[in-house]
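JOB MANIFEST
job_type = single_chain_structure
chain_count = 1
residues = 497
[input]
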Amino acid sequence: MTQPRKNVVVVGGGTAGWMVASAIAKLLPHAASVELIESAEIGIVGVGEATLPHLRAFIQTLGLDEAEFMAATHATYKLGIEFRDFGKPGDVYLHPFGVFGQPLNGVPFLHWWLRMHAQGRGGEIAEYSVANVMAVQQRFAVPAADPTTLLSTYGYAYQFDATKFGPFLRGFAEKRGVTRTEGRIVTVDRDGESGDVAAVVLESGARVEGDLFVDCSGFRSLLLGDALGEEWEDWSHWLPCDRATALPCASPRGEIEPVTRATAMAAGWRWRIPLQHRVGNGYVYSSAHLSDDAASDAILAAVDGEPLAEPRMLRFRAGRRKRSWSHNVVAIGLASGFLEPLESTSIYLAQAAITQLLDLFPIGPIEDADRDAFNTQIDYEYDRIRDFLILHYHASTRDDSEFWRYVRHMPIPDSLAEKIELFRRAGRIQRYSRGLFFEPSWIAVMIGQGIIPQAWDQRVDAANPGELGQALDRLRGQIAREVATLPGHRAALGLSA
């Protein structure tokens, strides 16, 4: 039986708002009409310039042309995130978008490498990641379609101008029937019986009614937080960075690095994100350990190109709402929660919420089962990412500032402590089917920050060590040779040298 179309009201534009509007307009045109309310007076946060490979699937699902998207947002390719000075000063490792080596006889590659590593052979595990070797050589090519080749064993994401992505999607969404309404919301009207949001009232006096409201109002969380009073779960005791100062600079000459870089600083870390037309920089820090002026001075001193603006300071806190879907309001993006951009997860979290909303989009009246399923999945996403971010801090051996001493010795969630102990003892990664970051990601960060397993899968010991060493040498050599045939990053982007 055909149900009447639902009136969906998206509160807030920016990346999250226009992603929601675009997805519903493209995939549920028969089930919903979409009106998006935003005010040109309210700026875009715009520090989420780095993404994860999942965004490629979103772009493909919408049917967007990748080249057109990249040109509109001045995007570059991204093979992973390079971490500097996190384990200890001088350390450098990459969290690559791809696997390490290949399993053999049902045993993960990590365990074969661990046996050779214990004998001082086999090189670094990074040499068995195609994405890592490509990043080091600053090369890029789209992964091969043939799944049997080494050049199919990696993925890629984008680094782009976040202030351009929302407007790009706006054009797409409006062509598919999304209505954009300019204005500030001054009042939220709720139904006296159900507590649902019935309408929002604009500064102009206009009243916008809806069946389902999607809160993309950013940190303010206008509907879920302010109007519905949904409780906030604070994680700042685990993730104490609560501010960032952002600064764009001119691009240096030479090749464009196909990676986002995170460099540990005295009170947090700084990012470097190379785009086609400039480089995005920022210092994420704890205000309890560093003043705003000192943070601005530090980022100005650290950039490797001419500053293109004054440093811009942002305030935030780590955590999430207890529920992201309450009554007839779904919060997506910063209105739902915030985790610092150490692993470029902000846009992913919005995308994951959009995917869940599409999966659970109510056919008739909104049911508790819809809300519960949505909230359970979003909780998993936030909790997995939270633990992974804490790992980067807690696994450090730095002892050169009050900030690093705090995060190194602070109590951590039991869920993370169990993961670290299991890996340290036996080289195993807890497997799970929901949430972000699987085995290669945990391996990259743990080994990159000096957590080396004390043992390996006992099946590995049945192999002849000489033959095993030769096999690993061959694999390293093959990866190096194949990567050397690929074009540089600039050439892959079609840019002049």
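[summary]
The first strand starts at residue 6 and ends at 11.
Residues 368-394 form the longest helix (27 residues).
exit_status = 0
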